[in-house]
């Protein structure tokens, strides 16, 4: 896609798509969004479901997704406090994209070489 100078009032789709990609860029955001697309999760469930993510990084990524309006956080006044994360209505609009990625992976995923994880904490067994 070419980055062209646009006349006044015209939309530069390259710049707009860069903004869209930035919302979901990073090692963990797409994985978090995919999990939350499946169902509501608590913090600990997300951390266990994403091998290699640290508590600090999960917190940072969830805060960014929340600030961008893609994830909502609900705090329940219980002892101990319970916090749940879910995708927002705006993020539900990404559903067809998630489904297309799933279909693509089902067709081509076996042809993609497995790469060893070199970042984050080691996944724990059990």
Automatic annotation (TrEMBL):
Transmembrane segments: none annotated. InterPro entries: HTH_HxlR, WH-like_DNA-bd_sf, WH_DNA-bd_sf. Pfam families: HxlR. Keywords: DNA-binding, Transcription, Transcription regulation. Residues 15-113 form the HTH hxlR-type domain. One of its GO terms (molecular function) is DNA binding. PROSITE patterns: HTH_HXLR. This is HTH hxlR-type domain-containing protein. The lineage of its organism: Bacteria, Pseudomonadati, Pseudomonadota, Alphaproteobacteria, Hyphomicrobiales.
């Amino acid at each position: 896609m070419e980055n062209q100078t646009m006349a006044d009032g015209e939309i530069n789709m390259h710049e707009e798509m860069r903004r869209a990609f930035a919302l979901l860029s990073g090692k963990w955001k797409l994985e978090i969004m995919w999990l939350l697309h499946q169902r509501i999760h608590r913090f600990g469930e997300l951390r266990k479901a994403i091998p290699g993510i640290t508590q600090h990084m999960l917190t940072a990524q969830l805060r960014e997704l929340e600030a961008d309006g893609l994830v909502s956080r609900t705090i329940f006044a219980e002892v101990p406090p319970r916090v749940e994360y879910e995708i927002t209505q705006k993020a539900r609009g990404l559903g067809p994209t998630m489904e297309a990625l799933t279909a693509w992976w089902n067709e081509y995923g076996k042809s993609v070489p497995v790469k060893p994880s070199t970042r984050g904490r080691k996944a724990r067994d059990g």
